[in-house]
Amino acid sequence: MGKKIVVVGAGAIGGYSGGHMTRAGHDVTLIDAWPEHVEYMRKHGLHLSGLTAAENHAMKVRAMHVCDVQELIKDRPVDIAFICVKSYDTEWAAHLIKPYLAPDGFVVSLQNCINEERIAAIVGWGKTLGCIASLVAAELCEPGHVNRTVPLGGERHTVFRVGEVHGRVSPRTAEVADLLRSADSAKVTTNLGGERWSKLVVNSMRNGLSAASALNGNARDLAEGPRWLSIRLGSEAVRVGQALGFQLEKMLGMEPETLARAGEGNRDALAEIVDILVEAAMRRSDEQRPSMAQDIAKGRRTETDFINGFVAARGDEIGVPARTHAKMNEVVRRVERGEVEASPDNIRDL
């Protein structure tokens, strides 16, 4: 009998990875808080799409409302629980699934930001794994429909990186990586902290900027002003991560030190980073927009406090100021509160 898997938060990343695991024949239950999304999946299945026709799939899935999770007690215990909710919902999601875990069951944080400590505080460190989703760019565009707007990673770019907090390779990290290969390339990492901060650098360059400005990914990276702001954000985040002692990984082709120097005004480094960002934009769909920009468009709360706000807070703690992040966080909060509309005007002074 195969492992029993649940995905708490069947939105863009949870729906995408959970749908592909279902398509590969695994026993997966998708749990979500959006009633229309759950009802559509129950009646019509889950539809996944991408940049090529070969990426379009529709499959029957087991979908469950958050309020019906207690029905899991009638089934066998959960072996693997993927938490794919927004960072501000991490604690309740961990509490929600904890009673249904098998004795050797565990939780995988498949989220933006850094949430392993929050999960471990509830289920225990021995039941906590982390997984970075690098360059998926998926969106839950309507109930039951998840669209990916960047090319598959495949052999060119490893998308899913699964790791233990302590850094050792374990059978369960290999098992989770194998599950996620049904969606795209995956590996086990011995550098979960460094991978996490590296992904945070990329998110901090893009998410808040697009959320505040309403620019999609390509408009952000192809226009000189927003692109320069993005590079400065990345530079500050790298310096904070380095000061914290993280071993940063190459980020979408960008070496951490090169990105840091680019944001500090080194011309050669800047030219190299600009070339990388422009080339990446040429491969993306014009529909691509970061998750926080999706949240603003949908009138939802963003993860700004866990991305730009988090970088600024950690920088203040260790004496490495990340002032651009602090300013970006406040601008996004103003847009989020409805004080100003998302517009390129919001980022001009930054």
Describe the structure.
This protein has 350 residues and is of the alpha/beta class. It folds into two domains: 187 residues, 3-Layer(aba) Sandwich (Rossmann fold), CATH 3.40.50; 153 residues, N-(1-d-carboxylethyl)-l-norvaline Dehydrogenase, domain 2 (Orthogonal Bundle). It is 44% helix and 17% strand. The protein has 13 helices and twelve strands. The strands form two sheets. An eight-stranded mixed β-sheet has the order 5-2-1-6-7-8-11-12, with helices on both faces. Strands 4-3-10-9 form a four-stranded mixed β-sheet. It is globular, with a radius of gyration of 19 Å. The N and C termini lie far apart (55 Å).
Summarize the structure in short.
The protein contains 13 helices and twelve strands. The protein has helices spanning 12-23, 35-44, 90-97, 116-123, 171-180, 192-213, 217-222, 224-243, 256-263, 267-283, 291-297, 308-318, 323-337; strands spanning 4-8, 27-32, 46-49, 57-59, 62-65, 78-83, 101-110, 128-133, 138-142, 145-148, 160-164, 186-188.
